[in-house]
Amino acid sequence: MSAKNRQESDTLGQMDVPMDRYYGAQTMRCLLNFRIGGEEERMPRKIIQAMGILKKAAAETNQEFGLDPKLSTAISSAADDVISGKLYDEGHFPLPIWQTGSGTQSNMNSNEVISNRAIEILGGKIGSKDPVHPNDHVNKSQSSNDTFPSAIHIAVATALMKDLKPAVKSLKDTLNSKANEWKDLIKIGRTHTQDAVPLTLGQEFSGYVQQLTNGLERIEAVMPRVYQLALGGTAVGTGLNTRRGFAEKCVYRISQLTSLPFVVAPNFFEALGSRDAMVEVHGALNTLAVSLMKIANDIRFLGSGPRCGLGELQLPENEPGSSIMPGKVNPTQCEALTMICAQVIGNNVAVTVGGSNGHFQLNVFKPLIASNVLRSIKLLTDGCNSFNTNCAKGIKANKEKLAQIVNQSLMLVTALNPHIGYDKSAQIAKAAHKNGTTLKEEALKAGISEKDFNEWVRPEKMLGPS
């Protein structure tokens, strides 16, 4: 195909369309009317691939309801080029996120591209809408109002189950191996960022493991709603212009194509009018981001130093950290992950606002919601993988520093409480701090025998209930 224009038409008239593109008049009109954001604000690739899956399933299902097998096969083959990402990479899906809130233009972009590619497969003239019409054949038994939300759910479910869950699990497994390795390594605890009683480094890391375990469980908990597809509701949820059984057959085919257990939404009016499932999904992502922020910050501060910080952990040295201070190395993986978490927390606001704007039978913030959910999944997936590979796996415990800090801590005095009471124990701790002496020295001054002190104040006996 040359780079010259051809003419295609929609209900508003004729439009010039580049000859080297499969899209048609409606896509071109949208491209001219919504020049917002540039290449980096394109409709996400995963949404377009999900549309390809949906259109392929619809074509094969429509064949069962009378669509010419020749047309169905051509549409299915063209949809494969969409599913592969080939046509997205070649620029046939140029539309921005910032378009109609229903995603109608992206649905029509998909219909036009698949129609013209199918026409090409069949040896016809691109742009002729013959023998494959974008509305009558590719969009048969569908509406933008049920296809676009279905594509969101397909894309999000795929990203959650095949990208994010494995990344979080890998990081959890690494932290769990550290927790087991360090289960007997005693360190001082900190509450309010101040010295507290002892625990083991393994116990501390077990808390991080549980946070990620809970995060994975939250993802699993939202999946039943993500697997519900709006397909079959058409324009307002009534299913006008579709056939009985179409939704069930088409969704079953989508399940086969994705290997995920999608089902027909139990109520199309909810499935079209709200995006509650995506708000719920991003709630789980938001909580995961909060967990990762805590984990990365803890590791950042525990590894601070190397000489003037806490220095309890030794983090991998991945790159020079300063353009002026020779030899400086910074906790860059922690910084990257916490920035990602901040972005995800911000995305959550946009998704929440978008989800709250369902009006009557349609939510018209869908592209905003979809792009933010998918961006958060992508950032968290890549962030977990990077942090795991470049930081967590290489963390080492500084055993000497851990022991030194434990021995310096005044909060070991807590072990005296059951024997001499809180008030007298506090006096000993305050005296040691004021005089720059040890707990043992002040305890002996207070009349406690050395034998009793050595028996009572033993960090290894302070790690759990007596």
Walkthrough of the structure:
With 466 residues, the protein is mainly alpha-helical. The chain contains 18 helices and ten strands. The chain has helices at residues 25-33, 45-64, 69-83, 86-89, 104-121, 134-138, 144-181, 201-226, 246-258, 268-273, 276-302, 332-355, 366-390, 399-408, 417-420, 422-435, 439-445, 450-456, and strands at 5-10, 13-18, 186-191, 194-200, 228-229, 263-264, 313-314, 358-359, 362-363, 396-397. The chain has a two-stranded antiparallel ribbon with strand order 1-2. Strand 5, helix 9 and strand 6 (263-264) form a beta-alpha-beta unit. Helix 8 (201-226) runs antiparallel to helix 11 and helix 16 (422-435) packs across helix 17. The longest helix is centred in the middle third of the chain and has 38 residues, at 144-181. The protein is elongated, with a radius of gyration of 30 Å. The model has no long low-confidence stretch (mean pLDDT 97).
What kind of sheet is the major sheet? 2 strands, antiparallel
- Biggest β-sheet: strands ordered side by side in the sheet: 1-2
> How much is the radius of gyration in Å?
30 Å
* Global outline: elongated
Oligomer: single chain
Number of strands: 10
The whole-number mean of residue pLDDT values reads: 97
Task: Give the ordered list of helices and strands.
Answer: EEHHHHHHHEEHEHEHHEHEEHEHHHHH
Share of residues in helices: 55-70%
In DSSP terms, counting alpha (H) and pi (I) runs of 4 or more, how many helices? 18
Distance between the termini: 80 Å
Approximate strand percentage: 5-15%
Class by alpha and beta content: mainly alpha
